[in-house]
Amino acid sequence: MSFTPKRLLFVLVGLYLLYLAGGIALASQGVVDRVYFFPGFSIKRPHSDQSAFSPDGPLVHYLPDGAALSRCIVPQGSGFAVRLDTLRRPTDSLTCFVQETGLSFRFPRHAFTTEAAEYPAPARMLVVSDIEGNFKGLQQLLQGAGVTDAQARWRFGTGHLVFVGDMFDRGLQVTECLWLLYKLEHEAAQAGGKVHFLLGNHEVMNLTGHYKYLRRKYRKNADSLGVDYARWYAADTELGRWLRTKNAVERIGPTLFVHGGLSPEVAALQLPLAQLNDLTRRSIDAPATTDRSAAEKLIRNPKLSPDWYRGIAQEEAPAAHVQAVLRQYGATRMVIAHTPVTEIKPLYDGRVVAIDLPHQEHTGQGFMQALWVEGGKLSVVDDKGRKRAL
Question: pLDDT band at residue 29, thresholds of 50, 70 and 90?
Fold first, then answer.
């Protein structure tokens, strides 16, 4: 039978629809984590959320007298119990238990200040994003890449670990992952290294009362702890204060890091990075009033804000825009996350690198990958420490 162009088109459309139907069916059964509509654009599978009351914390809330109250859910016998501790001294340490891996790590609270917007390039960097509460995968990657040891202690010397947003939602060890990076930040600083934590859209969502992707576990734990989830990362908590010092955009050496991307509308504001970050931080606790400035409206606009914009990841933005943004901020390349890709890949002739991998799916398959930067050259590194040029 001969195929006319019209008949061939019908066949191709039919095959595409069969692919989508099959992919959605597999996603609903948990066989795959994402269904790709076309390269670079996918939807994540919906979770049948059976998560429940389980270990979590610590949640550290500050009291009017300057002390702090730590709340944890910890294993006890064949079940779990709520533990309360009062912290009187700024140096009092905290303990975080990770049920999935059995790891328990202890660390002191430490002083922190608002992050700078620009840093000189270190000799080496590990760059990862969109972990979404997947502690097991994160630990495997950090240990395999030589950033931490088996006890999750910093072993990266003067290297930099760059997290490009989205630690919140979808996964079940969000609190544990946050405390791990908090701990590593302190240890890295002592060794002359650095941990960079950039705000993604899910950080901003959780800090501004938007819980669409929140797992059932956290609502159950909130009830048991007697602390509404809306207060877990408030401005009177240790993690809430820490997160409010973080940036949306940073330049490290010649590389610009941002979770979503910089839209033409945001770029047109011509804001220095420090001012752009200040605006983002202020927006977290700012009331949603109708008299916001044009800049404030852009920062809160999901389609255009640095933590949400997808135009660069989907290669819809003109190449001239990408070049202009890099020139504006003194960079030669940009690393973005937020929009899923099947593999770390360069866009715009290498001026942009997209790194949002399906980490949960990869963990289940027994491996993790991230971006490695050393001597100005880009590689992909896995959880065995193996590297290949990008």
Answer: very low
Asked if residues 337 and 312 have their Cβ atoms less than 8 Å apart, the reply is no
Is there a contact between 47 and 133 (Cβ–Cβ < 8 Å)? no
Confidence of residue 21 (pLDDT cuts 50, 70, 90): low
pLDDT value for 4 = 78
CA dist list (Å): 225 to 56, 206, 338:
10, 18, 32
| 283/291 Cα distance (integer angstroms) | 13
Element (H, E) at 373: strand 369-374
Quick: pLDDT tens for 272-328. Answer: 999 999 999 999 998 877 678 889 989 989 899 999 999 999 999 999 999 999 999
Helices (H), the chain: 5-28, 135-144, 174-191, 201-207, 216-225, 238-243, 264-267, 273-285, 294-299, 319-328, 359-364
Residue 101: exposure state from Cβ atoms within 10 A (0-12, 13-18, ≥19) = middle
- Its pTM surpasses 0.85: yes
> CATH assignment of 118-389?
3.60.21.10
- Phi and psi dihedrals of 318, rounded to 5? -65, 150
How far is 242 from 370, CA to CA, in rounded Å?
24
Check: CB of residue 3 under 8 Å from CB of residue 11: yes
Phi/psi for 201 (5° steps) reads -65, -30
pLDDT bin (cut points 50, 70, 90) of residue 6 is confident
Contact 59, 94 (CB under 8 A): no
For residue 323, which of 364, 267, 279 has the smallest C-alpha distance? Answer: 267
Enumerate the domain spans of the chain.
5-44, 56-107, 118-389
Structure tokens at 384: 């065995």
CA nearest to 269, candidates 279, 260, 258: 279
76 three-state secondary structure: strand
**247, 241 contact by CB (below 8 A):** no
Three-state secondary-structure class, residue 36:
strand
